[in-house]
Design goal:
heterodimer; A: about 100 residues; alpha+beta; 3 strands; B: about 210 residues; mainly alpha; 9 helices; about 0% strand
Amino acid sequence: MSRKNEPERIEIDRVIHEPARLLIVAHLYIVESADYVFLMQNTDLTWGNLSSHLSKLEEAGYIEILKDFVDRKPHTMIKLTDAGRTAFDAYRRQMRQLFEDLP
Amino acid sequence: MKPESTLEQVERGAWLRIFEDGIWDIALGLVLVAFGLSIITGMTAVVTGAVVTVLVSVGCVKRRITEPRLGRVRFRDRRRRQLQNISWLLAALSVVGVLVFLFITWTAQGAVPAWALAIRDHFLIVIALIWGGAVAFGGWLLNLPRFYAHGLIISSALIGSDLTDGYSLGVALLACGGLIVLFGLVLLIRFVRRYPRQSARGEADE
């Protein structure tokens, strides 16, 4: 069968497209960095759920985990990497384009 | 998150939430109370120390009360610039305070123009406009409309003190400062009830 007749497939970044991870990335996009409590408060995810999604985002290279000290106690902050910001921008453009020409 | 929210609204919501605790309101109120006590008791040095302590403590109090509930977040440049602008505003207010003091001293020396005497005779109105305006301006810089009300309370108390001769400047500052502290405490109690502390593993502690 000719390859010319194959339907065009829409490639969506499935790392970001998952609803919980989309919320996480969106909240990290609007700030420079944030900790677990901030993300839990704003995404309504449980700690375990959040942790699992953050691992996937870290594996994809979209976030980095920063260890810091606050009042001599270790504190973890999460930050979108440049690759993460670029991927989110691309995802936003793609979604906008996807629905643009719909009647 | 409401489905119709935009990212900008989400960012603005996150920014405004850190001021829901009323801690800045309490700090402002305590500073005014301290100035009032300074005038009434004459213990300027002690009260200056108290004012500095209050302002320095805001960050520490926010780390103990607000951050365990809302989390720690580093906003982007635009918001950090807004906070820097507030610092400049406070510095400018301090300079204005010194200039006002020098002006009052100068007008006490005699042989000054009539306009200067008129201003000195109603300097409380000048101070009311400067302080009230500065607090309202700070509210505008930080997108906190309730600080317009604080500015109005301060201006009203000082102008009332000037026009009625019914109460002294010290009492006026105590009253408006006390009112603003009370308002801040109400906000703080509401905030603590609305946002329980989150432990490291995410379970609410209270």
